[in-house]
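Supplementary Methods, section 5.1.

A reviewer requested that the exact input to the structure prediction be made available. We therefore reproduce it here, unchanged from the version used in the analyses.
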Amino acid sequence: MNNAERLDPENLERLRNISTPTIANAIERLKIRRNDEGYTDATIRCFFPELGPIAGYACTAVIRSREPYPQAKYRSRRPYWEYILQSPAPRVAVVQDLDQPPAGAFFGEVNSNIHRRLGCVGVITDGTVRDLGLR
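The structure derived from this sequence is encoded cell-by-cell as follows.
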C-alpha cells in the first residue's frame, strides 16, 4: 500500500465513528455489490463492546487448525508477523478459519497479546477464540 492510499488520522477517526448501518447503506447506494451480499448473520458479535468501534487497515490471513499440519511446529510465524508490521497502523487482524466447523482456536491469550504488540487494534475472525476472560 502506498502513502496515497492511506487515510490521514483525522479521516480514519471519522470513519471509526460512522455506524455500520450507515456504511452498509452507502455501499448499497453506490452499487458496489449486490444488495443481497455483504451481510452478517446472528453469529457475529462484539465480545468487548465497551471498547467501542474500531477502524484500521486489514491484515488478512487464512488458517486451518482442525488437523495439525505435520510440519507446523517447524515453521516460523515470523513471515506472518513481518507482513503485519509492514501494514500501516492502526492494524486489524482479519483471520478466516478454513475448517468447517471451525476448531482449534488460533486466538487466545498468547496470540491476542502478540497481535496487540504488533499494533493490531482488533481482530475479526470466523474461527474459534479462547481465553476471553483474560486481558
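Strands lie at 57-63, 91-97, 120-125. These observations are discussed further in the main text.
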